[in-house]
Amino acid sequence: MKYTPSDFNQGLCQFLDASPTPYHAVASLQTLLEDKGFEQLHEADSWGQLNAGHYFVIREASIIAFTLTGDDLSNTGIRMVGAHTDSPCLKVKPKPEKVQQSLFQLGVEVYGGALLNPWFDRDLSLAGRVSYEDPQGQIAQVIIDFKDPIATIPSLAIHLDREANQNRSINPQLHLPPILAQMDDGDKLDFRALLEQQCRQQHPEINIGRVLDYEMCFYDTQKAAVMGLSADFITSARLDNLLSCYVGLQSLLAADNTRSALLVCNDHEEVGSQSVSGAQGTFLQAVLQRLVDGNEAYQRMVEQSLMISADNAHAIHPNYADKHDAEHGPLLNKGPVIKTNANQRYATSSQTSALFRQLCEQNDVPVQDFVVRTDMACGSTIGPITSSHIGVKTIDIGLPTFAMHSIRELAGSQDAVMLHKVLTAYFNQK
């Protein structure tokens, strides 16, 4: 199926709005997969010898979807794309309730390397996963989303901080607790009781008892949008890295199924990936090992496989062009970016970059390069982690983005369709 940028971005915006947390992102991906006939597998079940077909597996807030052709993977390998489901945010603490100056607030932790200034003066809501006890004493989980704007973090007025525009500092402990309500003397609010009420409203079909625990995140309620005088840009929360998750999935769904292909979207990339569902965990390796018979077949499969790690790249900012190496400043709407780092913060090698560059040329898609300034530190991705853990040849690529890790990011409205075209061809390539 051929997409115009308008068609593709409409679906992307819907996906972004439906995915305020990694748990919701996985649920959104699951819905899209099931609509296309993918069958869910469970790690606790015996899979046996899987037939040619379409499958997916979920572990926590990570998901792996794959298509098998019936060919011997030890001879053909498998084409893989990796992305991540998490984004920097404010997570609610276990004992969060605060009442100060008759205002009800919730204590928060900063998740990941968040750009904190843009979190002020936004209409915030809450979403996440809740663990509850049912009437039989069993523990189960549901995901919820308040959806309505229920909180805000007001800025301090300029009159009380005359240096705010020159030297504003944020103490996360003191300055970030959002305000949710005004309280009368003697009033008390229990956050778990509030979650219990919300769970019952959103899941009336479930007999929900008391809430035991939760993973709840604040998020901006402003919807994703295509904007600009000529609709050149797409703006949203969580473009890093739900943009890559969506493009990867649509490419897997559009593939012609002549070659075995896989998409992995891991949680916890923003905090180092060291978790049961992160790229440093066993999820991808455990799934791959179940697709072939024995260690030798597994090693042969990996050697003939390739991984594209897709994570957003830093576009050159017109107001801060000096923050880039002049020859390696990606532009919006000029195609995907090959990310390279001599110190292996990206997994790209000359071999894998040559393959991707050729693939882009064959599909009439422009390709760009990013290398961080030599005098600046370089971030990283799941690419080097997956490459070293699995032993698979890997390239790091991404789409140019402004305001990465802000509560609202900006990307080009044409780039996602270009990457979709390349990744679909990659999944089809013999």
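^ that was protein a. below is b, sequence first then the tokens
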Amino acid sequence: MNTNYPAEPFKIKVVEPIAMTTREERAQYLKEAGYNTFLLNSAQCYIDLLTDSGTTAMSDNQWAGMMLGDEAYAGSRNFIHLQEVVREYYGFKHIIPTHQGRGAENLLSRLCIKPGDYVPGNMYFTTTRAHQELNGAQFVDIIIDEAHDSQINLPFKGNVDINKLQKLIDEVGADRIPYVCVAVTVNLAGGQPVSMENLREVKKLCSQHGIQVMFDATRCVENAYFIKEREAAYAHKTIREILKEMMGYSDGCTMSGKKDCLVNIGGFLCMNDDDLYQRACELVVLFEGMPSYGGLAGRDMEAMARGIEESVDYHYIHHRISQCRYLADQLVAAGIPIVLPVGGHAVFLDARKFLEHIPQEQFPAQTLAAHLYLESGVRSMERGIVSAGRNKETGEHYRPKLELVRLTIPRRVYTYAHLDVVAQACKDLYQHRSQLQGMQMVYEPKFLRFFTARFEPVVQKAVAKPSAEPKVAALETA
């Protein structure tokens, strides 16, 4: 087990009390939420690991920047600053601010996709695929096969399979592939990085066929850290240098600033192509706002510009990824199945292996997330069959090989002591996992169902078994 966990590279200036609830209270909260952790209120959660999106603790420097917001409707100085920072750190010529990452995904999809297109990517992401499909494209998974196996331990498990990409080009033609979407890192594979070598190969192949490469750059700084750690040629490069080179192997990106830009709201779309930028400027006014604010206040853009500068600090990113490893090491030592290797923003429990007795159609990851909250107050997120959604043609569930529960660590929010609590909660639940029962979906929205779907247990009550050990009680139906 790794025991070299760095201390927090910050000191705490402001504190926020967190909820301390009883199991009885949590049982009622869970029932009211339809056993969907997304529908719980934050005040009902003890340690909230639902997401790292927008949950960052901003720095004093960012908060100071918030007081310098230029709220002019067009051409604010905060936009000029953000534009300068993006050009300096990422290298892109043009930037269109958006209210968050999916705003950028919407713009990119509308600008580039036509019905009948194919968009290859290194594993789907929920909102990204939804925008692609709504605009008439078919997503094609071109990630390496090993990414779909939680127990294979590879340094760059997020890599694109170049042969799969070439095969798709040969089958459908380059003119039906508007761009290749490369996520750095790959969220649903467990936060897995992509190597610089692989990015270089993808860009070379796409350039030969006139296909654009667009990054989902949401966690690009985490990806840069893994390159520094795992590719020998980059061991002595700075995070900033690696990040700039990474971005050079793309034609643009979508960015959710709520992750690696260290802010609570905001995102942007970047590109180098002048024509695409002009079209984006025309479209953004319909969905977001003026091209120089795109749904954001000036103060939000200032905080994001400063967050980008802070994000490349080695001590910050080293501590962040070390927190993930600290939690993961405790779970592995206890024999709890997780996705290997550990990624940069979360630890993913392998619900399929954790709850081997629950079939996938009874939503084992949803069940596990609900019980983890019930027993400990720790909120997590399902990333399995519920998140995967349905095939719009057949109506059948997509059945991903990875059925996961994501324990997502917010940036600069929790300490190692909080992670000790999470680890112990997982251990306690694992000891009594055989008592857990599956769920059925009782309400299913048309789009992105994992956000608002509602569930109830398949069986109302578990059979009590005499034991001196504490029991995990069955969830009650609404």
